[in-house]
Amino acid sequence: MVDNERRTGAPALARGLRVLELLADSESLSLTEVAVALDLPKSSAHHLIGALIDAGWAERDPATMRVTLGLRAWEVGQAYDGAQSLSQRARPFMDAVRDATGETVRLAIRSGADQVCLAKSHGTHKLVFDQRIGARLPCHATGLGKALLTALDDAGLTELYGNGELEVFTEHTRPDVASLRADVSAARARGWAEDDGEYILGIRCVAVPVFDRVGEVVAALSVSGTTARFSAEQADRCRHELQQAAGELAQRLGEHTLPA
Question: Which of the two residues, 80 and 5, has the higher pLDDT score?
Answer without folding.
Answer: 80
